[in-house]
Every structure is written in structure tokens, then in C-alpha cells.
Amino acid sequence: MTLARKNRLRLAGVVCGGLVLAVAAARVQATAETGAAPVEAAVELSDSQLKAIKIEPAGVHLFPQEQQAVGNIDFNQEMLTQVFTPYQGRILKALVSVGDIVKKDQTLFTIDSPDLLQAESTLIAAAGVLELTTKNLIRQKNLYSQSAAAQKDYEQAISDQQTAEANLRAARDAVRIFGKTEAEIDKMVAERKVDPILVIPCPISGLVTARNAAPGLLVQPGSPPAPYTIADTSTMWMLANIPERDVVALRLGQEVSVTVLGQPGKVYTGKISYIGAIVDPNTRRVLVRSEIADPEHELRMGMLANFTITIAQPRRSLSAPENAVVREGDGTMTMWFTTDRRRFTRRTVKTGLLHGGFVEILEGAQAGELVATEGALFVANEWANSRH
Fold it and tell me: What would be the CATH architecture of the domain defined by 85-113+196-231?
């Protein structure tokens, strides 16, 4: 072949290749200008293959608008109290233990109190002085009536008797502060006998969560550790650390539901009572506290809990069973639609909330359209196999 002929053939190939590229580009441009959608993937199944799938219409479902978090159970610190002795003394008896349920005014422990002993001794002395001054007043009154005593002596006896009455009232009040009843005070006065045992009652009904009391232990008012700690467990706290991006949707009083591993299947209800004002600089989270009702006293401090917050009213949206949605390799969500229950076409959809086995369909489908649910992944695999 001559050199001239080779050059002519080469030139013709370049021209033909250029024409092919030009035609392809023109087709792409025409498609872009007309807005024509690309051809959807489609597959037709045989009767035997259809037995492996289930076809259902897309419907409407209520989707609760909720937020999930994980936290832990704690005592309601506003209903937890440390029980101290109001006066120093040595513990005689510790009557309850950790884990016991106690009632308000039930005796927790008793102490031998020198302060109580002193108050009761003053009471008995004041009662004796009053008795003496009363007798003296009666005697001075009789003498004065018979002009056998000076008026100033009679008036002094009246003053002494009134002072003794005031001292006795003060002494009774001092003993009453220690928790002694009027009947017990009257008995001390009548028998002239002191009772140095100070009874420490429970200020609230609840659960004994800590005990440091022991017979023989010297205790001081307000000195830690407290002999007893009592918690009212009719309500508990649920503490959760929420990412700062999610806190904007939370409000005080929003309803929450809580589940714990220790009580499977049971849901506890409550409301948000506190939203932290500080974001943890290390975790970028905010402390959220909820008050949970626990009338049966089933929750325990430290329990791990799942925390569901209702942030808005449920919304009614188009939905499909969860297994109808296939996640593709690029992260997009697709569903397989059919009109004749045999031939299926793939369509990209946009999903939203997930609840009760249903997924919210925001875009890409309409109510009533038939979709493959059980076996949707099988349909996708059949289409992928048909391409090879």
C-alpha cells in the first residue's frame, strides 16, 4: 500500500470518529434540554420467583416525633434527706438498716444526750421552785389577809410565783424541742425522774439508702457522715446527656418514656424537669433531667435507661414497611414498584422517620402504589444478575 493511500485511510478514520463523538454529544445535549429522565431499572419475575416476595400498597401511618437518648437512673435529690441528730450524744440503738422501707416519724435511732439530760434536770428544778413559790404565796396571802404580814412581802411572793411559772413554761418548751410529748413531760415532773434517751424520728417516708449509725458512735449535729440517708422513691430522676444539636427541640414539661434492662417490656412515664445551661466542653453534650413516676419502687439508682422524648405531635405521612426499602451501595434508598404484580421498576425514594416497622416516605412514591415488601432485596438481586 502506498504512503498516500495510508494517509487517506487515516484521515477517514479520524473524520468518522469525530462524527460518532459529535452524535453522542448531541444526544446527551438533547436529553439535557428536554429534561428526559433516565430509564429506570426494571425486572420481570417468573411465577416461581413471585412466590418469594410479598406485594403491598404504600399507605399512611402515624409517626411519633421523638428523640432518643441513653442515660441512667438516680434518686430524686429533691426528695432525699440526710438525717442528723439535733444534739450531740452517743448512739444507743440503730433500729433500721439499708434497704428498709420506713414511714414518717418512725424511730431511726436513739442517743444518750447530755443536752437532753440537762434540759430535763432544769425542768424538774423549775417544777420544784414553782411548787415552793406557790405554797409561799398561799401562806403570804393568808398572813396578809390577817394583817400579819407586810404588803411588800405579799407582793414579793406574787412576783416569785409568776417568775417560777414562766421558768417552768420555758423549761417545758426546752424539753419539748427534743421531741418529748406533753404526756412524757408531765410524767417526768410528777415522778421527778429524767429520761436522757433522745429519739430521732424519720422526717419522710421512703427507702433507707445509707446508714452510718452504730451503737456507741458519738454523733454531732450536722457533722458528716449523716447517721442515715432516706430517699422518697415514689419518683426517680432520669439523667441523660443530650448532644447540643438536639437540645434546641427540648422544652421543660415535655413528656418522656423510659425503659430499663431490669424491667423488660415496661415503660415508665415522666416529664423533663431540667435542661442544663452549660455545654460540656469535652463531650459537647447538655445534661437533661426528667422526673419519672415509680409508684411500685422498681427502679434502682444507677440503672442504665433508654430515654425517649416526645418533641411534637405525631404526624401522618406516607409510609411503607421497613423491608420494602433497599439501601444501595452509594447510600441512596430505593423501592421496587409494580402495576401488574409481575414487572417491577426501581425508583429512588427519600425516607424519614422509622416507627413500628414502617418507614416514612417523603419523596418518590404515592399512596396506593404497589411495592415489593418482603423480598424487595431479592428483586434487586435478580435485576443485578440480569445485567451480567
Answer: Beta Barrel (2.40)
